[in-house]
Amino acid sequence: MSLLSEAWAWLAVEGRWSGPAGIPARTAQHLAVTGVAVLLGAVVAVPAGILVGHARRGAGWVAALMGGARAVPSLGLLTLFGLWLGIGVEAPLLTLAVLAVPSLLAGVYSGFLAIDEAIPQAARAVGLSPGQVVVLVELPLALPVIVGGLRAATLQVVATATLAAYTSDYGLGRYLFAGLKTRDYAQMLAGSLIVIALALALELLLAALQRAARRVADPAHTSDPSGRRPSRKDHP
Amino acid sequence: MNHPHLLIPLALSAALGLAACGGGDPLASPSATDAPASSAPAASADPIVIGSQDYYSNEIVAEIYAQALEAEGYEVERQFRIGQREAYLPEIEAGSIDLFPEYSGPLLQYWQGETDARLTDDVYTELQEAVPEGLRVLAQSDATDQDSYVVTREFADEWGLEKVSDLEKVTTPLTLGANSEAETRPNGPRGLMDKYGIEVGFTPIEDGGGPLTVKALKDGDIQLAIIYTADPSIATNDLVSLEDDGGLFLASHLVPVASEDVDDNAAAIIDAVSEAMAPEELVELNARSVEEQAPAADIARDWLEQEDMA
Questions:
Q1: Is it the case that residue B113 has pLDDT exceeding 90?
Q2: pTM of the predicted model, to two decimals?
């Protein structure tokens, strides 16, 4: 309890909210690291997911591979990348991108696989090319699940992006590392609180995005899983 | 016969020892009357609990303590790799660990906060006063494991560097790479400015002078790093440890912390170990761990045999 109030007191110190090492600057760095890492992950995961999902083949194989990838310890991977790339923000970015890939990839291919097989077949039957089937039919229908994957990946990455401070002066992790070693637990807790707030804000944002994606995928609300579709009961 | 007189203090000390490590621990202690009051070296039935940091070098030293005591008939319990000072010192103070290899300077800083003492003997004298009740520090060893500024051999040759004060000859900007706490602690840029008048930049690298720090030195991302004097990577990576001629770093000698459960006989055994360990031997022990991946128990056994203490 007193630790929590100390953390609030730490946050309330005026000088912490400005300057190149202030909380807003570090929060912006943290968000930037998160954004770039998820983007890097998406560059790999989205095409691969589309390939697997559209072909409807190899999903079991990919799922096993990604299950394994989820178990890779990020700190160990960071040290490996760090020894390869040197210090700086590159190694943490790469590590976080690896962390983002499994959730993103799973979102894309399972979104595709959840579509009734008859729908892409029908699209092909009316003369759409495979590319058109993907872009015009499958992607919009899979969108809610894809955004769900994005949501899971972002949450993981934003929470783990504190690792960026392991090899560089970047992001909110600095408060955690500095606090741990100097027994300044108020600083550590304050840093964690900011990360938690950030994670919650992103979660809300992406949840809204997911709802929007559902409207795109299903404008008539015929299969809205949230149960808010107009049913006969609602409209007697 | 004075046997009854002998028994009373022994029983008392056994009872005290048990009381000290009681504290609601369900595993603790048969009643004091069960404690054998006679059997020679061990004054109580409790084994001596030896702890170590989550640091391979510290674990080797703890293992040496353990095997040296076992060789003399003591029963020991190993509680190794307990993390860093913040995690284990409260356990020592609470009496659940009896013996722990420590380092004089950092330990003094932990108990006393900032201190002006820097030199070996000053630190040890202050440390003896700072020790909380119920604990004591045994004799310190010549072996040190302390922070030092290191540069690459190439960089040292280029600018003719041997001592930290030589850094003022360097005309290019200097960046220090170390754990982030060094930015505000006296062993970082502030200390270099205060003690030496040398200005350096700072890059946090959180692996405590490990492989990432060495890589950054070799890449030239940083020019200065803080690496422990006993770290074999100084030799294997051809780094140069600069002599701290301005007395910036705290002297940090290997020193055992002991509770009252460590009797005088046991303390004498540990003192003999501390005396036998030379600074370069500690580096060699560490090197065996890092280069051969030899387990701490083997390294400790070989060293004790070599010193005729097995």
A1: no
A2: 0.70
